[in-house]
Amino acid sequence: MTKLDRDIVVRTALGLLNEVGVEGLTTRRLAERLKVQQPALYWHFPNKRALLDALAEAILAQNHDRATPSPGEDWRAFLRDNARSFRKALLAYRDGARIHAGTRPSPPQSGAIEAQIRLLCEAGFAPKDAARALAAISHYVVGAVIEEQSSATNMAERGEAGPGSSGPSPFLQDLFRQLELDGAEAAFDYSLESFISGLERRLAA
Prior knowledge:
Layout: H1 6-24, H2 27-34, H3 48-63, H4 75-91, H5 96-100, H6 110-123, H7 127-154, H8 170-182, H9 184-204
């Protein structure tokens, strides 16, 4: 097989990602899964970074359904829905946030990005401020999901505190328990609302 179908490579890589994580996703292992020689992958992906960029784009295309605002939509409502949809997309695959971190918007995403910026400009933001606000929320989402996915991955590796070790005070134990019961989504929404409230204040200043 001298030439692979790009979509098959991406789908196979996403399946492998869920099995082995981003560290275990190598071009050698992917070639073995596809039953081809490793150089056959270079037709579409000259290196692992190019492959990860394609996976990031596919993850969003499959799962991010609130990238484009509706005409006349309230900017605050859109930012909430957009961020939650983005989070959902990154959580759809193991290490999804790490795959996305460091990527640049691809050409197919430019129309949605312009629509987002124009929505904020219509609300009164300067274009640069609109772009910076969107970037700040995007960075928050990626960082929050990296923490969430890393916590889930490391949970099984955490042992109980050894004899004689000092744990948190009863106050902190109770507080941490309450936060854990609230769940990651509640923590995510709290910070998201703080971002939006801050943008409201900047807009009104």
